[in-house]
Description:
Layout: H1 2-19, H2 28-37, H3 41-54, H4 61-70, H5 77-80
Helix pairs in contact: 2-3, 2-4
Amino acid sequence: MKRYFKNLLIAIDQLINAIFGGYCDETISAMAYRNYIHGRWWGVVLKKTIDFIFWPIEKEHCLQSYITEKRRGQLPEEYRKCRPD
């Protein structure tokens, strides 16, 4: 049941990100870090805000989210394999 709620929260996060112009399978935190490394001012503000909110739970939350996206960590194992069966 815990996994269900985590998946639901990630899906809502990704939906909000897509509504505001981010990639459809990307979290707001990962988008914030991506825009931060590209030097966009609003990416800097968003990253710092999100990292501040998540600081008690996870250091460098946006960076960790970005790395998870790059590694396809949100996907089930069968989708992480880059070859069709």
